Amino acid sequence: MSFSQALLQPIQVGDLNLKNRVWMAPMTRSRANNPENKVFDIHATYYRQRASAGLIISEGSQISSKAVGYINTPGIYTQAQTEAWKQVTQAVHEEGGHIFIQLWHVGRMSHPDFHGGELPLSASATNPNSKSYTPQGFKDTVTAKAMTLEEIQETIQDFKNGAKNAMEAGFDGVEIHSSNGYLFHQFFNATSNFRTDEYGGSIENRARILFEVIDAIKEVMPENRIGVRLNPSLHGIFGTTLDESTIPTFDYIINRLNDYNLAYLHLSEPFTDVSEVPFAEPNIAKRYRPIYKGTLVINSNFDQEKGNQIIEEGLADAVAFGKPFISNPDLPERFAQNAPLAAWDQDTFYTPGEKGFTDYPSLQEAKVD
């Protein structure tokens, strides 16, 4: 394999030696279509096929039944779910790969249908005015229930428990999904957090839950196996809007993450054009590379050329690719050979079964056909 490309150079992340900087981004695939919401053999095949990634970050996996917000997404809170994940981590490790699990709580992006009619939880009693994909199809979101202090503490413990289960399941680490309009993001943004206690008001208070979760998780696993994902300029999707305090809040969070010896910080460039949005930051890597001292991973609509370029410019250490990994299980090899990429089928992103999941051929298999 050619090491001339920046993307294909190995990288040390904490105490892990990763073979390249082509990482697989976390992607919901809705294949855990069983009553226990656990992974099974097709997941082991799917992740095995993609084990040449420098690091796989798994699909978001809920840390409790209260954290669920999409159908057929796997969990990491029961013993059965934990046992099931072992076949996935074993498959990836057999191929010489590494895999982190993404720990997830969707907060107000859920729907009462997932919770026996109970309201989903959030920082405040707000409605994202979005859609939730329920077992009965898309439904309008509702006004969430503001979490009590006790529920916040329970959630922190749920994240800790999820991390403990992840270690038992053989994962190399965890990524805290504090991004994309989900629970943590709902606490961070003043447009969705109207609390007047120690979790609301000031920037420090709105960010508090994230640091309490990191502190809890590092009690059950090495700090340098914990990643954090953030999307500072998310606006107008996932029910999220930003205001004048949003970017200063993320400046504070990312500065403070330097106090930890994390595996990495995973940032997303804006999902939509925010060049005309007041108070938004259109260039996330450029803004945060000078601030964050650890390993910085960047994501959102990168291709091979842009991926190499951002690493060469020193603005990121690795790039997380999403959709290209769906249809190109051997993405690093295709980059090495400068081979064309196979197109993905959007219609099968979230449908149960193997179609559009494990049936995309590698470059080698495609040549044989």
Q: Name the overall outline.
A: globular
Number of helices: 11
Largest sheet: 8 strands, parallel
Q: Give the count of structural domains.
A: 1
From the helix content, strand content and strand pairing, which structural class follows?
alpha/beta
Q: Write the CATH architecture name.
A: Alpha-Beta Barrel
Helix content: 25-40%
Low-confidence stretches: none
Distance between the termini: 23 Å
Kindly provide the name of the CATH class: Alpha Beta
Q: How many distinct beta strands?
A: 14
Report the β-strand fraction as a percent range.
15-25%
Characterize the structure shown.
It is a single chain. By secondary structure, the chain is of the alpha/beta class. It has a single domain, classed as TIM Barrel (Alpha-Beta Barrel). Helices cover 30% and strands 15% of the residues. The protein has eleven helices and 14 strands. The chain has an eight-stranded parallel β-sheet. The longest helix has 20 residues, at 149-168.
Task: Please outline the helices and strands.
Blueprint: E1 11-13, E2 16-18, E3 22-24, H1 41-49, E4 56-62, H2 79-94, E5 99-104, E6 121-122, E7 131-134, E8 137-140, E9 145-146, H3 149-168, E10 173-177, H4 183-188, H5 203-217, E11 226-230, H6 246-257, E12 264-268, H7 284-288, E13 296-299, H8 304-312, E14 318-321, H9 323-327, H10 331-336, H11 363-368
Parallel strand pairs: 3-14, 4-5, 5-10, 6-9, 10-11, 11-12, 12-13, 13-14
Antiparallel strand pairs: 1-2, 7-8
Helix pairs in contact: 1-2, 3-5, 5-6
